[in-house]
Amino acid sequence: MIKASFYRKYVKRCLDILLSGLALIILSPIFLIVAILVRTKLGSPVLFKQLRPGKNEYIFSMYKFRTMTDEKDSEGNLLPDEIRLTKFGKLLRSTSLDELPELWNILKGDMSIIGPRPLLVEYLPLYNSKQKHRHDVRPGLTGLAQVNGRNAISWEEKFNLDCKYVNNINFKQDTEIFFLTFKKVFIKEGINSESNVTNKKFEGNE
């Protein structure tokens, strides 16, 4: 059991509230512009809502700007992601503008600014005992895995980085990840995996 430091126990959450609240106010014009563009180019609803597991596997609704259309085939099934992901949707993802509504999740306490990314609920039974520890903390808007490859690294590498972060949460590391995130977004590194428009699904450990 990792002993919680003063930063991890008290300061980190206070910074989350302060920074997410300020960001929601300062970035409100960008929120409005993106919302109007999404409504115009992709339709309604503007926000994409999906259940994700948070701290201690608590399930919450995570919000993002939608990046895909609802195009379906003749049988009513959604078309593959690579077809529904438009040029505008790719722009939102490459600039991480689609992630902005998660600031509300951070303010509410579902998420943190820095932490392991919240993944799909269906992955919960697939984690091994070590990987489950990624849920010992609030999931993050960005994290150690995101600044070390994001979707371009394997699931094993991603989970190892998540666990490394959980076991060593400190102010210095969070600050480094925070500023590295801006650099990665600027150079658009690691947005896609080699074979998918995002990342292939986690299907369990070998």
Instruction: Tell me the strand order in the biggest sheet.
Output: 1-2
Structural class of the secondary structure composition? mainly alpha
Helix content: 40-55%
Strand content: 5-15%
One letter per element, helices H and strands E, the order comes to HHEEHHHEEHH
Give the number of helices.
7
Mean of residue pLDDT values = 89
Supply Rg.
17 Å
Structure description:
With 206 residues, the protein is mainly alpha-helical. The chain contains 7 helices and 4 strands, in the order ααββαααββαα. 40% of the residues lie in helices and 10% in strands. The strands form 2 sheets. It has a two-stranded antiparallel ribbon. Strands 3-4 form a two-stranded parallel ribbon. The chain is globular and about 55 Å long.
Question: Which key features would you list for this structure?
Answer:
206 residues, mainly alpha, two-stranded antiparallel sheet, two-stranded parallel sheet, 7 helices, 40% helix, 10% strand, globular, transmembrane, membrane
Short recap of the structure:
InterPro entries: Bact_transf (IPR003362). This protein is mostly helical and 206 residues long.
Topology:
Blueprint: H1 6-26, H2 28-41, E1 47-53, E2 59-65, H3 81-84, H4 87-94, H5 102-108, E3 112-114, E4 140-142, H6 155-166, H7 171-187
Parallel strand pairs: 3-4
Antiparallel strand pairs: 1-2
